[in-house]
Specification:
The complex is a heterodimer of chains A (401) and B (309). With 401 residues, chain A is mostly helical. Helix content of chain A is 74%, strand content 0%. The chains are: A mainly alpha (401), B mainly alpha (309). The interface between A and B is large, with 63 and 70 residues.
Chain lengths: 401, 309
């Protein structure tokens, strides 16, 4: 059943939804990346909630002019207008009053959503038939998706992607260093607005599939996921698009494969699955990598300290140190150093003495700052410098040579 | 309007709405000042899965398990946000966005998977509550306020939200000094021995309790709006914390009362037949108040910042 869904064999509607969700996931992931890098991820929450009054007003206008209240382009246009108004209000609040951005986001989000709820109840009491579809915009409803709806979503998604492609460079620059961008003569405020406009476009396009509450997830989770895997912004954009698209595709397929699996939430949960995997297993930034890194560091410290103890003839009691040294073949089971162990220990003690000289010498100040008790001195000083330091230390004294 | 009609039908929803608004606005003052305003948003989203899980475990709509479930979900969310922020080195806003959307999606999915057709539990209810239905059927007029048997028939939500309000007020009153100092100057607070981490956590938990109690009665829209709008509007009115809190209480009560009255009677005045959502109207009113404060409030601009861009 799931395989049928994945290969788009589950009928017309399921195929439409899967294709639409994939496109939506890609454009949301790509657009959300810039928002995330700009550290304004939650702005999308305000934008998406601000679409509701527009949807309701558009419905009322459509009905008042005798049209079908569920005309998707009309509703989407209305939602875009009110989201834009919300966005401008939010920008105005942050720029012209003392409110911080988070308070402005929360205020716009709750007030616009509250107004939308009021309008929803007004519509319910208007007694016009077929208003049932409007609640679908809260959580998305893919059951009745039509070819025309899918076309709108596809066209909107493609247009958004194209726009991102065109203004990706200024957006990246503004995201990383707004002051520098301003100094270069870029209109930072307008680029920010353009970024928000793109987010708004994605939100509007996604209303039908995942609904206005959950579209935020598609804008935030894929970029965060992608950020784990790379340090380069262009790759983050690509990976976020990939993660979003995959989540959309898999989520739509999963939800089509069994009853009672609403598309929007499933897509979000699949997306979170990717995030959790990345959080745990990503190289370098993942939790597992960090744990391994820590263990490796711990082992180096223990071996180093063990060698110094050996060199000074002290007995080692610490079990982990002993185990590590034994495994490396540096001490025997009874705690006595092997030949290799003696050599490594002597070298360790000598290096420690060399570092002592380096750290006491003002001329080596920059090098001395690198001392952390683990770094091999050969990696920071040249061969000649080490010979010079050894000359300062000198040979054994007070014994006949 | 006469007491016979007002007391049973409108008095309790008005009181519940006002108490809920104040209970959320009080901790909201500190959250707004600490730039943690969106905690309220996150909490009100994650309450849904908590309530659904509590329903699945007990199999019935009963209040205390649901409150516990909601509070548990709020704690889980706060812990998850913190864990993701630290383990993944992700900025707090994005971590919050990841957690609350996922938990909300989980709640919706659970709700769809279980058969809740026999009980009154759905997403719409969670979003905008049912303030209008909290009526006091035993009352016959103002005299019922002194009648013990009639008072026993008060909706239980009223006593719960009143308790929550008392709890929140007590917390802020008792911890006034550490709260104030750690909100404005965390470094100084630490040097004089205030455990700022514990104070911050206690504030978030208090906010969660207020949110859950209010959510039970009025839905999550009011919760988010009241956490942010009255304190934000109050912030534009004054530079003193004491005055700000007083203003926020005034604004919260004002939006609750005006919102409820407009939702209940506004459509009738305009010639409509049915009332509109009170929760939505209260949120809208708080937004109007905020807009007025942002346009004309005496302290609306940042001190020292250029007045217009």
């Amino acid at each position: 059943m799931l395989w049928d869904a994945l290969t788009l064999q589950l009928g017309y509607n399921a195929t439409l939804v899967a294709v639409g969700a994939t496109l939506l996931g890609v454009s949301a992931g790509v657009t959300g990346t810039f928002l995330f890098l700009r550290k304004r991820a939650l702005v999308s929450d305000a934008i998406s909630h601000a679409t509701l009054p527009g949807v309701c007003l558009a419905f009322m206008v459509l009905v008042a002019f005798g049209g079908d209240g569920r005309n998707l382009p009309g509703l989407l246009a209305g939602s875009a207008v009110s989201a834009w108004v919300g966005l401008l209000c939010m920008n105005w609040l942050t720029r012209n009053t003392r409110l911080a951005e988070d308070a402005a986001i929360g205020a716009i989000l709750s007030v616009f959503f509250g107004l939308g709820i009021v309008l929803l109840t007004v519509i319910q009491t208007m007694g016009v038939g077929r208003q049932a579809g409007l609640e679908g915009f809260l959580l998305g409803s893919t059951a009745g998706m039509l070819w025309a709806d899918a076309l709108i979503i596809a066209a909107g998604g493609a247009a958004t992607l194209l726009l991102v492609l065109i203004i990706r460079r200024p957006m990246t620059m503004v995201a990383f260093d707004p002051e520098y961008a301003a100094a270069r003569g870029l209109p930072v405020h307008r680029i920010d607005l353009a970024m928000m406009g793109l987010v708004m476009a994605v939100t509007v396009v996604g209303l039908k599939i995942v609904g206005l509450i959950l579209i935020v997830a598609l804008l935030i989770i894929p970029p965060v996921t992608a950020r784990f895997w790379t340090e380069r912004s262009d790759r983050v954009v690509l990976l976020a698009g990939l993660a979003g698209g995959l989540a959309g595709y898999l989520g739509a397929a999963l939800s089509a494969s069994a009853p009672n699996l609403p598309t929007g939430p499933i897509i979000v949960l699949v997306s979170f699955g990717f995030f959790a995997l990345s959080l745990l297993f990503a190289p370098v930034r993942g939790v597992l990598a960090a744990v391994l890194q820590h263990l490796k560091f711990q082992r180096r410290v223990h071996i180093r300290q063990g060698l110094l103890a050996l060199a000074q003839g002290q007995k080692i009691y610490e079990p982990l140190t002993l185990r590590l040294l034994t495994r490396a073949g540096l001490v025997r089971a009874d705690g006595v150093a092997t030949e290799a162990g003696k050599a490594r220990a002597a070298k360790a003690l000598r290096d420690e003495k060399r570092w002592e000289v380096v750290r006491a010498d003002q001329a080596h100040e920059a090098t001395a700052a690198l001392y952390d008790g683990l770094r091999d001195i050969e990696t920071v000083l040249t061969h000649d410098q080490i010979i010079e330091i050894d000359r300062q230390i000198g040979g054994p004294q007070g014994v006949p040579t | 309007m006469s007491g016979e009609e007002f007391v049973p039908l409108s008095l309790t929803p008005l009181l519940i709405g006002t108490f809920a608004a104040i209970a959320c606005a009080l901790p909201g003052n500190f959250l707004v000042l600490r730039k943690q305003a969106l905690i309220g948003d996150a909490i009100s989203h994650v309450v849904l899965p908590g309530i659904v899980v509590a329903f699945l475990l007990t199999g019935a709509i009963s209040t205390w398990p649901m409150m516990l479930g909601a509070a548990g979900a709020a704690v889980v969310a706060v812990v998850m946000i913190e864990a993701i922020r630290r383990l993944g080195q992700i900025e707090p806003g994005a971590a919050m966005g990841v957690v609350f959307t996922t938990m909300f999606a989980g709640g919706v999915l659970l709700l769809e998977q279980t058969d809740t057709s026999t009980v009154h539990l759905d997403v719409e209810h969670a979003l905008y509550g049912n303030l209008e239905s909290l009526i006091w059927l035993d009352a016959v007029g103002w005299s019922s306020l002194l009648d013990i048997t009639a008072l026993a028939g008060l909706p239980p939500e009223l006593s719960r939200i009143a308790l929550a309000l008392i709890g929140v007020t007590l917390f802020i009153w008792l911890f006034w000094r550490p709260l104030k100092i750690s909100t404005f100057d965390e470094g100084f607070a630490r040097t004089i021995g205030i455990r700022t981490g514990a104070v911050g956590m206690a504030l978030v938990i208090t906010a969660a309790i207020a949110a859950v109690a209010a959510f039970d009665a009025v839905g999550s829209i009011i919760v988010i709006a009241m956490f942010i709008c009255p304190p934000a509007a109050a912030r534009m009115m004054t530079n003193r914390l004491e005055a700000q809190i007083a203003w926020s209480v005034v604004f919260a009560s004002l939006s609750a009362i005006a919102g409820y009255v407009l939702a209940g009677y506004g459509p009738l005045w305009l010639g409509g037949a049915d009332a509109v959502s009170a929760a939505g109207m209260i949120a809208t009113m708080s937004g109007l108040i905020l807009a007025c404060a942002a346009l004309w409030g005496p302290c609306r601009t940042r001190a020292g910042a250029p007045s217009t861009a």
